[in-house]
Amino acid sequence: MTFDVREFARTARGSHRSELNLDAIAAAGITIDAARLLRTLRDLERSTMQRMRNLLVTATHKDARVTAFLTTWAFEKFWIADALDAVLEATGHPAEADAGADGAIRHTLAERADRRGPIARAIAGNIAGAQLVAAHVTVGLVDEWITSAAFRRLEDMAIGLTPVVDRIIAIKDRHINFLAEDAERRLADSERARKLTAKELRRTAWPVGANERSGDDRTFFEKTVFGDERGRAEASRIGELVGALPGMAALGPVVSARLVP
To answer: pTM (2 decimals)?
Structure first.
């Protein structure tokens, strides 16, 4: 293991507001669609505590290295969300969408298990045992690949946000480095870990947290990030990355197909 979790915690990135050129961002402005994508990404980044609750009722909470990573990961994601709030404030776009504007939540049979509450997750997690940690870090890795692609699309939509996006991508790259290393190791070590991970990848709503968002909002995200030729190529690239993980060759096309509207 080459990722230094202690150094990661020591160099955690907190508030970004003092380093953002909000006057320049305000002068450049962003479109309504860019603001909507930014707001969606902000909501996904700040849903970390709900994700932590779901993870830490399973055997994952017993793994000291993963738990140490997740603590700093959650801290950094909180401040990413705060930076996106600062951009919304500076550009005059509402921080929240109008209540009910985006319609009903999308329900699919494949994602039913992804909606389980903490009690059901705790029971299932205890049955799965320690090998479920592999599924958790792999799902987290795929999610970071997806949200990084969304941030790059946001940069295309609002060139004035390049410094903000570059800052966020640099933070996410460290998250990806840990998750990729841990997922590779765990998947290579255990057939049961590979089976549990494949099961989770098949039923996870992408990006993680999407199952709590409206169908309209999810469709907007899918069309905006992965709906054109370049987006479909990015979805295929993410599928290839998934397929390159130990034992996940069959899951690459499954993940990429669910990203494309």
So the answer is: 0.90
